[in-house]
Amino acid sequence: MLPAAKLSKEQLKEKLDALQCHFTWMLGVESHSPQHLLQKLDVEIKHTAHQNQLALLGLQAYLHQLNNQSEEALQSLRAAEEHKEDEQLASTAGSLIICGNYAWIHYLQGSYQEAETCLERVQQLCPTPWDVRLIPHIQAQKGWSLLAIRARNGERARECFNMALMLEPQNRSFRTGLAMAFYSSWNSSWQPDTEREVRIQLERIVNEQPDNYKAKIYLARLLEQVDGEKSIGLAKECAEKSSDPEVLKLSALFWMPRSTERALEIIQRALQQEPGYHLLYQALANCYKQQWVKAKEEDKDKIRCKAIKDLQKIVKTHPDLDLTLAKLQLAEFIGAENPAKEKEIYMELERKINTLSLRCRQALSLSWGKYFLYRDKSPEKAKAKFMECYSIPLQTDHRQTVGAGW
């Protein structure tokens, strides 16, 4: 029988709040569904570099706990414990973060004595309130976790990696993280004054790490308008040599405006490797849309029917995946011939609105708006839905479309 907890629940919570771990970092997960983040993270963990594996496993534990999956959360932490850092300080920092996550999970399960035991372990690892030598490694873990959630965390991730590099300026892993954070920050804000610095950072990583295809596809995207030849060369290399489904997805998106056939080929190859990656199906639906829009009039119906057949099969085969955006594209294809069925799909998603991420809610409102405007010929209803989309405080392409006057 476990001894009684020494601290009151309030005292325990106060100590937990002071820890450095995923539960205290305010990672900004609220705008996404846990299901979406976990599916995305599962792919990243399988294909990640050694340098951020521990951060991603800790993040996975945090997301499982948010999703009320305590046993899965503990399994993720056990996997994190098996991951060994080569450097002693990095290893100690990782252990501190893991222990902090354990403490929080036990606390949220109501196992207060176990939570206290984890706090004691933290105290043993780091007797002083802050060991300055551990700060850069903790900040780096936080930075990688922020980047794994969303691109709009890029600025905060930059701050983390900059702090880490102030204390360890020669650390290659920290420099890699900073380059990725710079790109994410630029990609979500499109500030032209940062473009040169982002390019310098990415080019250095690409030169130092020729197998870092994520950095290469980021650089390809960045160079599209200034060095088309180099940009295309990098994108080709990524599509041909990378086995990372996320890199292949980004490669397909790069090729989509140039050749939908090439983009489709890349997506299909990625799906053979990772058929459970929901964002590939989203990219596939987008590719079908581009094919349909660009096709000659006599070919449009054939493309639309094939897209409907494929997307319906995907939705039926993968009921456990977050396929909201693919379903919305399917509805648009169906609506060209059967508006009533299109409306039915929107109503089905509307009934699940509380489970949808903010981005998906925006997309649903935008789709409703287009439906009322073009199918139902009800401009007032359309306006209400467009305003509903814009009122959701998340900067996305859906909100941008509405803001530009749809």
UniProtKB/TrEMBL annotation:
Keyword Repeat: yes
UniProt keyword annotation of Repeat present: yes
Gene3D superfamilies: Tetratricopeptide repeat domain (1.25.40.10)
Keywords of this entry: Immunity, Innate immunity, Repeat, TPR repeat
Highest rank taxon of the organism: Eukaryota
Gene Ontology terms: cellular component: cytosol
GO biological process, one term: defense response to virus
Family statement drawn from the similarity comment of this UniProt entry: Belongs to the IFIT family.
Name under which the protein is recorded: Uncharacterized protein
